[in-house]
UniProtKB/TrEMBL annotation:
UniProt PPR repeat ranges: 226-261, 263-298, 335-369, 370-404
Entries under Gene3D superfamilies matching the protein: Tetratricopeptide repeat domain
Chain intervals for the UniProt region annotation (Disordered): 1-48
PANTHER family documented for this protein: OS02G0711100 PROTEIN, TETRATRICOPEPTIDE REPEAT (TPR)-LIKE SUPERFAMILY PROTEIN-RELATED
Source domain of life: Eukaryota
Organism: Penstemon smallii
Biased composition (Basic residues): 23-36
Name this protein carries in UniProt: Pentatricopeptide repeat-containing protein
Origin organism lineage: Eukaryota, Viridiplantae, Streptophyta, Embryophyta, Tracheophyta
Alphabetized UniProt keyword annotations: Repeat
C-alpha cells in the first residue's frame, strides 16, 4: 500500500475541485450510472474555509475511536490524508471488499472530508459484497455530510439520485432541514420547491398523502409550486385509491398551472385513480375527452393499466376507444405485451376479425409477434372450432419455428379430422411427433380412428405403421377397428402385415 501524505484542510478544499460525480468513469462498470453529485468545486461556498471549518468542529473523527476494525481505519485514513483526486486510486490499491455496514461506518467518521468521502462512496459501490449496492442509510449519510458542510447543491444532486432509486425517506429530510438550520438558512429550505417536492414524495410513499396535502396547503402561498408538485399528490391519491381527492387536486392543478401537454405523469395518475374508482371507465371517458380536446394525453403508464383493466373486465368497447385514441394518434407505441393483452381480449370475446387485424398491424408499430401472440390466436381458434382461420396461423407458426402447445396441437388434430380436413390433421400430427417425445398415444390413436371413420383407411394404416415404428402405443381397440375396415375392403392381408409389426414391437 502507498504511503499517505498528511493533508491539511486547505488540501481538502483544493482537491475538492476534482469531479465528485457518482456516475462511474469509463474504467468501471456502473451499478449506479444515473447517480450524480456535481463537482464540489462548482459551488460557490466550497472555498469558504472559515465557514466550513466552523461546521466541522463537532464532527467525529476516526482518530477518536479506539477499537475500529482495521479495514475501516485504513479507509478512513486514506480519505483523511489523500487528495480527493487520488482517493479512488489509493482505495483500489487496498483490494478491500466491503459490507454495507463498513461503508456506513466510514462515512460516519469522514464528515471533515466531503470531496474525498464522495469519491469513497462511488468507489465502494464496486466493493460491496452480497447486494452490490448502497444501503438507504449510506445514501442518507452522504446527504447529511454534504449538507453539514454547506455543500447544498451537491446535496440536492445526491437527493435526485436517491429519488430515482426510490430511497428518499423522512429521515433524509430531517437531515436536510437540520443542515439548513445550522447554516441559518431555514427560510431558504422551506421556500425551495425542490425540497417541497422531495419531501412530499417521501410522505406520499408511505401512504400519508393527506399529511402531504396539509403541508402543501400551508406552504402553497409562499412557494410557486410546479406541475411536479401536483403530480406527486395525484400519484399519492392514486395509490391510496382516493378518487374524490384526486379529482379535487386535479381541478386545482388545472386552475393553478393550466393545461400542459408535457404534464403526462399527472394525467397518467389522475386517470388511473378514476379507473380504479367507483365511476370506472365512464368517469375516465368523460375526463379523457376533455383532455383530448386540449391536446393533453396520458402516457404509457395509463395506457398499460387501462388495457389490463379492459382484459380483466372483458370491456372491448373501452379498449377500442383507448387504443384508437392512443395508438391511432401516435401518442403511444404499443409493445408486444400490450398487443398480446388486447388480442387475448378479442379472442375471449370470439372477435377473431379484430384479433387478426391487430396481428397484421403489429409490425407497422415496431412490435413483432412472438410465440404468445400466435399461441393465443391458435388456441382460441381451435377451441372455437374456427379451423379455417386456424390453418394459416399454424402454417405461419411453423414457418417462424414457433412450437404450439402440445395440448393445442392435440385439440387441433381432433378438430381437423372431425371437420374432414385429413391433410391438416396429418400435418399437425407430423409436427407433433417431430417436436414432442411423450404423451402422444392418445392423439395418435384418435387420428388413426378418425381417418378410418372418414373413409381415409390407407392414410390410417400408414399412420398406424408409423406409430408402431416410433414406439407410440397403438391400442388393440384401434387395431380391431382397422381390421374391420380392411376386411370389408378385401384387404385382410394389409391387416395381417400390420398385426405382425404390432406384435414384433410390443
Amino acid at each position: 500500500m502507498r504511503n499517505f501524505r498528511k493533508r491539511s484542510h486547505d488540501d481538502e478544499n483544493s482537491s475538492s475541485s476534482s469531479s465528485s460525480k457518482i456516475n462511474h468513469n469509463k474504467n468501471y462498470r456502473s451499478h449506479h450510472h444515473n447517480h450524480r453529485i456535481s463537482p464540489i468545486s462548482d459551488y460557490p461556498n466550497h472555498n469558504s474555509h472559515k465557514k466550513i471549518t466552523g461546521k466541522r468542529s463537532n464532527f467525529i473523527s476516526y482518530t477518536e475511536i479506539s477499537s475500529l476494525p482495521p479495514k475501516v481505519k485504513i479507509l478512513c485514513e486514506i480519505i483523511a490524508k489523500t487528495p480527493a483526486a487520488s482517493v479512488e486510486s489509493y482505495l483500489e490499491d487496498t483490494g478491500i471488499r466491503l459490507s454495507q455496514e463498513d461503508v456506513e461506518e466510514v462515512l460516519k467518521l469522514s464528515y471533515d472530508f466531503p470531496a474525498a468521502s464522495v469519491k469513497f462512496f462511488r468507489w465502494a459501490s464496486f466493493r460491496i459484497q452480497l447486494s452490490g449496492k448502497h444501503s438507504p442509510h449510506a445514501w442518507n449519510l452522504v446527504v447529511d455530510l454534504l449538507g453539514k458542510n454547506c455543500l447544498f447543491d451537491a446535496m440536492w444532486d445526491a437527493i435526485k439520485s436517491m429519488r430515482k432509486e426510490l430511497l428518499l425517506s423522512l429521515c433524509t429530510f430531517e437531515s436536510v432541514f437540520s443542515s439548513y438550520a445550522i447554516d441559518n438558512r431555514v427560510q431558504e429550505a422551506i421556500l425551495n420547491v425542490m425540497a417541497l417536492n422531495s419531501l412530499l414524495r417521501a410522505i406520499c410513499r408511505v401512504r400519508k398523502t393527506q399529511h402531504a396535502r396539509e403541508y402543501f396547503n400551508i406552504v402553497k402561498e409562499k412557494i410557486r409550486v410546479d406541475s411536479e408538485t401536483y403530480t406527486i399528490l395525484l400519484e399519492g391519491w392514486e395509490k391510496e385509491g382516493d378518487e374524490d381527492r384526486a379529482k379535487s387536486t386535479f381541478s386545482e392543478m388545472v386552475s393553478d398551472i393550466g393545461w400542459d401537454p408535457r404534464n403526462v405523469l399527472a394525467y397518467d395518475s389522475f386517470l388511473r385513480a378514476l379507473l380504479k374508482g367507483s365511476g370506472g371507465t365512464s368517469e375516465v371517458l368523460k375526463f379523457f375527452d376533455t383532455m383530448k380536446d386540449r391536446g393533453c394525453y396520458p402516457g404509457m403508464k395509463f395506457f398499460k393499466f387501462a388495457i389490463d383493466e379492459c382484459v380483466r373486465k372483458s370491456d372491448a368497447k373501452f379498449a377500442k376507444v383507448v387504443w384508437e385514441s392512443m395508438v391511432g394518434k401516435n401518442i403511444c407505441r404499443p409493445n408486444v405485451k400490450l398487443y398480446n393483452s388486447l388480442i387475448s381480449l378479442y379472442c375471449n370475446l370470439k372477435d377473431f376479425v379484430l384479433a387478426e387485424k391487430l396481428l397484421d398491424e403489429m409490425v407497422y408499430n415496431g412490435a413483432f409477434p412472438d410465440s404468445e401472440t400466435y399461441g393465443l390466436l391458435f388456441h382460441f381458434m381451435i377451441k372455437q372450432r374456427r379451423i379455417k382461420e386456424a390453418t394459416p396461423i399454424f402454417k405461419e407458426m411453423v414457418k417462424n419455428e414457433i412450437v404450439p402447445m402440445q395440448q393445442d396441437c392435440s385439440m387441433a388434430v381432433k378438430e381437423y379430422i372431425e371437420g374432414r380436413d385429413s391433410i391438416m390433421g396429418i400435418k399437425v400430427w407430423r409436427f407433433m411427433i417431430e417436436n414432442y417425445s411423450s404423451d402422444l398415444d392418445e392423439t395418435g390413436n384418435l387420428l388413426v380412428l378418425g381417418l378410418r371413420d372418414i373413409n381415409r383407411v390407407p392414410e390410417a394404416v400408414k399412420c398406424a405403421e408409423d406409430m408402431i415404428e416410433r414406439g407410440i402405443k397403438l391400442n388393440s381397440a384401434t387395431l380391431s377397428k382397422l381390421k374391420q375396415s380392411l376386411s370389408k375392403a378385401g384387404k385382410a392381408f394389409a391387416y395381417d402385415e400390420l398385426l405382425s409389426k404390432w406384435k414384433n414391437h410390443s
